[in-house]
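Changelog-adjacent note: as of this version, every example in the card shows the full chain rather than a window. The one below runs 477 residues end to end.
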Amino acid sequence: MTALSPRKADILANSEDAASEREKFWQQAAFFHAEDLRYLRFLIPKGLRVLELGCGIGNTLAGLEPSFGLGVDFSPAMIEQARQLHPELQFQVGDVEDPEFIASLPVPFDVILIVDAIGSLDDCQAMFESLHGLCSRETRLVVAYYSHLWEPLLRLAEWFGWRAHQPEQNILSPSDIHALADLSDFEVIKAESRLLSPLPLFGLGSLINRFISILPVIRQLSLRHYSVCRSLRQSHDGVQSASVIIPARNERGNIEPAIRRIPRFCDDLEIIFVEGHSSDGTLAEIRRVAGTFRDFDIKIMTQPGKGKADAVFTGFDAARGDVLMILDADLTVPPEQLPKFWRSISTGKGEFICGSRLVYPMEQGAMQFLNLIANRTFSLLFSWLLNQRITDTLCGTKVLRRADYKRLLAGRSYFGDFDPFGDFDLIFGATKLNLRYVEVPVRYAARTYGETQISRFRHGVMLVKMVVFAFFRIKAF
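Full-length structure tokens:
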């Protein structure tokens, strides 16, 4: 281990002295740690490869149930305690600010976790920069720290012996952490503040943390703040091919225009029509068009069930492209816009790309006024629920990597089969995976053939249900 600064030497000495009592203080603050771990488990599903820097006695790492867990701390006494408490995990003594030590760790990890240890670092930016070599495109850096608004109360808890003594820590707000991440070529994907009550309060503590601490304005007073980041240096993984999935039900007049208007935006382009038991001859038209345009790689499927979600996922499951794209057969999102989506994902600017119809003026009659008001209202609600700016949840054009779709499917049981359209299946799944969400503004066009299959009031009620569903599964869980 490299030579420590006087400040870090004092922190190490304090850790060595406190190691024997760390488990006792952990148990005294069991409610706080359980609430903290509950949100970390939401961010970090079990079964991943997790590296925790500054792991202490390893209780947080163990609580995440990783498939491979490695904890690092510069205190030999803490590591000895961790090995005794959690023999199923691996622990190493090392200084996380030593680039050579960081470079010696096994790679890559799904998650790199830093809980409070960022307060003890001498140079947070340099430490962040050393982590890129441990990252793949899918790796997420999760930083959890406490709000210094709580400093007086925490010092009071130390004075009463309710909390272990802590040497002076770095004062880092969420904005400070985000700025350091940006300087280090990490991009913040998600930020959240939670946990207003560190005490159980006879059962009220959980209710306060679940329903009150997440509210706008109030959440700025929370004890804990969390940041999820990705490495920009590893964001480009060289995708080469794309599959455009076109769900089509009673869209006979739009089939040939779709093929004629889709640009050749990549060398390896697959188009999959998923026909939805039409009554206007759509399936026969798809077959005719496929036979006419033989220079396209066109596949034809009939969905086994009903609804757009069934059609989309049927196409996704059969697709071979590195990137999966949805293009609604009504062509209200112009096919000519697809190259923008391809550039956004192939250059690593985003990992889950959605169209937004609510930025540019749209064609006359493309969307009814009440639908427009409802879309804007729900966009505000979902922006708060998902901690990401979302202007349009229901634009049909959505794009993600096939590899991420497979990960999304693996974790789909968390939400269940709840969405007949598939839009929220994908949005919520991408949120749970901490994918970088990017919107591409498109000019929304009016239909030229057929009728909309959207029922304003029935599907409006469904949107309300989605808000409630998201609140309990993503926000107040």
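Structural remarks: The longest strand covers residues 186-194.
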